[in-house]
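Input chain follows. Return structure tokens only.
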Amino acid sequence: MSRSDEVNKMTENVYKGILDQFNPSLKNFVTMGKHYEKALTGVTVAAKGYFDGLVKLGELASDSQGSKELGDTLFQMAEVHRQIQVQLEDVLKLFHSELLSQLEQKLELDIKYLTATLKKYQSERKSKSESIVLVC
């Protein structure tokens, strides 16, 4: 095998390695990120139910003379919980828009680019090989 053939084979293996191994792994990573996002969205829904329960208990406790302090404490807990939820929802939006969506778009573009570049490389290589054979 000539040095040129070896270099050609190594070049094609790099392209194929990226297309067959790295990009599918990255695609799997994006899919796992979407599952994670979905799970966090479910947690957010459950947390809203928890928040509503805290507020309701706070209202009930505040109506009673003996439980006024407990009601105030529950309202404070509910407010802290609400702030945490708002932060979580903001982070979740950023996670989706700035990480998952961007990564997915770049991955698709990368796959198209690498596929086209590999085909172009193979076509040019074939063309050069044929022209060398014709000259000889």
